Automatic annotation (TrEMBL):
The keyword NAD does not apply. Keywords: Signal. It comes from Brachybacterium sacelli. This is Pimeloyl-ACP methyl ester carboxylesterase. It comes from the Bacteria.
Length: 330
């Protein structure tokens, strides 16, 4: 299995943010969404305010967006930011974050991706963020439909999609249902795509699944998913914590994408797997991607945790650059 060399570990804030995302997702598998409300919602006005304050503080670390779009879909309004890049890609990158976060979780990645091309980044509908769900999302087809409609409402026609964790699943799910707007697809350690979430991870997530449980329990699980990196108190970490504590999601968990479904994809796929991920079995996931993807490239970062986006932002951007420019040169 080809593996990337190990650069110095970046034990920084967003190392463990994917852990927070993983916690919400894995706990959902164990317990179900459990919400009586038909759409995702804030538990209180105070909780929403706390989250948005942390969101805005984290967002301030990003480059200034050139445009902000609020795109109406059948399922709600999707917040999308466009950043002007310096690269030569004909089609822009589309960045999708993990669950229970918001677009600022990708703050370590946006600057290096802007050297590849223009970047559109969005808050997932039905999740904490500035997208607003107003109609139930009931299945995987609905999840693909809102994203397809959001892309249809943007000025660009086609995108190179890049998704982290559930964002990778979301982009792959879109490609299975509506690939008209997709030029290529990059998945960063995606859940439920090339392998199931291990049972041990699901079980370990349960004590941290409830907002009334001690914050230390969520911190412990977050650190576990990020390879033992200590949880740090910073704006992005506070945004994640506020989202997990104050937002109630109300949509079904994503179903496992089968190898047979992967075999029907018509867009090129770059599958980036974290060698120390606890959200999938790295060897099994890489094997599935290699055997099932009709037009796929698989890269394994041997020492990366599920928080791979914050550990290896420059290396990821270099791979995305090589992959997407090669696609456009075909």
């Amino acid at each position: 299995m080809p593996e990337h060399p190990t650069p110095p570990r970046r034990r920084r804030r967003r190392l463990l943010l994917a852990g927070g995302l993983a916690c919400a997702l894995a706990a959902g598998f164990a317990l179900g969404s459990g919400s009586a409300a038909p759409v995702g919602h804030w538990r209180s006005a105070e909780g929403r305010a706390a989250y948005l304050e942390a969101y805005d503080t984290a967002f301030a670390a990003l480059p200034e967006p050139a445009e902000t779009h609020d795109v109406r879909t059948d399922f709600g309004v999707v917040r999308v930011y466009r950043f002007d890049g310096s690269g030569d890609l004909e089609h822009p990158l589309l960045v999708l974050p993990g669950t229970a976060a918001g677009m600022p979780v990708m703050a370590d990645n946006i600057p290096s991706l802007l050297r590849v091309g223009d970047v559109y980044a969005m808050d997932l509908l039905g999740e904490p963020g500035r997208s607003i769900q107003d109609r139930p999302i009931t299945d995987d087809a609905d999840k693909a439909a809102w994203l397809d409609q959001a892309l249809d409402g943007l000025p660009e026609e086609r995108f190179h999609a890049l998704g982290l964790s559930i964002g990778g699943w979301t982009a792959t799910n879109l490609a299975l249902h509506h690939d008209e707007h997709l030029e290529s697809l990059t998945t960063l350690d995606p859940v439920q795509t090339y392998d199931d979430i291990p049972l041990g991870t699901v079980v370990r997530s349960i004590p941290s699944a409830f907002n009334w449980m001690p914050k230390a329990w969520r911190d412990s699980f977050n650190s576990y998913t990020a390879g033992g990196a200590p949880v740090q108190d910073d704006p992005v970490g506070r945004m994640i914590e506020a989202g997990m504590q104050n937002f109630r999601m109300a949509q079904p968990q994503p179903t496992r994408i089968t190898p047979e479904q992967l075999g029907t994809l018509e867009v090129p796929v770059l599958a980036i797997i974290a060698g120390r991920s606890v959200m999938l079995d790295p060897e099994d996931a890489a094997g599935t991607a290699r055997s099932a993807l009709p037009d796929g490239r698989v890269e394994v970062f041997a020492e990366a945790s599920h928080a791979i986006n914050g550990e290896y932002p420059e290396e990821i951007a270099a791979l995305v650059d090589d992959f997407t420019t090669g696609i456009e040169a075909r």
